[in-house]
Design a protein that fits this description.
Arc Repressor Mutant, subunit A; Beta-Lactamase; 8 helices; 236 residues; elongated; 2 domains; 5 strands; alpha+beta
């Protein structure tokens, strides 16, 4: 936990530290994270995490349908406070969507899903913004106080660390899965080669060529061809 964090934010860091990463998808982890964040910002009724990959923003998790609807309205238009906060690394607050002039088209449409005010805080990580924490309310001026703004920034810092940790864990899990599949594929291919060597009296290279040619001819993965050959030798 970073030094200097006290009170509600200290409690936030404690709760985030208890989030389980193992055996869970990134979406599940971030959904729990954004739910925890929702309780730490005064005025928050719905929250979401927008992540940006390349130029493509997407909602990685949300707490409350209003947040998801508001996010998607921005993605449809290609602009809005959460997208601009994530791309520009700046905090953006809307006190009343009825009088908002920076994003007039978005503001007029988001009123229809109940949003009257919002706070979008960039997620800082290693000197850059990886997205934004979005906070929404049905009340005007819900985040106009310094307490909400300060809490939003503190929460965004905590969420950025949680997002980075969750993504890193998900990548490790995916790499381990891919390695396991690769090893399983290699094992079944070696078994199939052994079958072909015994049946056709060819060496290992020739057996592999037979597998590869069958894969190309039938437009199937090499592993699938190998699995079928090995299965054909098993007693029924």
């Amino acid at each position: 936990m970073p030094a200097g964090h006290t009170g509600p934010v200290q409690q936030l860091w404690r709760e985030l530290s208890r989030v389980v990463l193992a055996e869970r998808s990134l979406s599940e982890v971030l959904t729990e994270v954004v739910g925890i964040a929702a309780g730490a910002i005064p005025g928050a009724e719905a929250t979401s995490i927008t992540l940006i990959r390349g130029e493509e923003p997407f909602t990685a998790a949300h707490h409350g349908d209003m947040a998801l609807a508001a996010d998607e309205l921005q993605y449809e238009r290609g602009y809005g406070p959460c997208m601009d906060a994530g791309r520009g690394g700046i905090t953006l607050r809307v006190d009343d969507m009825r009088t908002e002039r920076r994003w007039p088209d978005y503001a007029s449409h988001v009123l229809r899903v109940g949003v009257r005010s919002s706070l979008s805080v960039p997620l800082p990580y290693q000197g850059a913004a990886i997205g934004a924490l979005n906070v929404y309310s049905t009340q005007p001026g819900a985040f106009s106080g310094e307490e909400s703004l300060a809490a939003g920034r503190e929460v965004a810092e905590a969420v950025a660390v949680a997002v980075a940790n969750a993504e890193a864990h998900a990548q490790v899990v995916e790499q381990a899965r891919n390695m396991r599949l690769a090893m399983e594929s290699r094992a079944v291919i070696e078994q199939a080669k052994g079958v072909l060597m015994a049946q056709r009296h060819v060496d290992a290279d020739a057996a592999f060529d037979i597998l590869r040619e069958a894969s190309q001819r039938y437009n199937r993965k090499l592993r699938e061809i190998a699995t079928g050959i090995v299965a054909s030798t098993q007693p029924r």
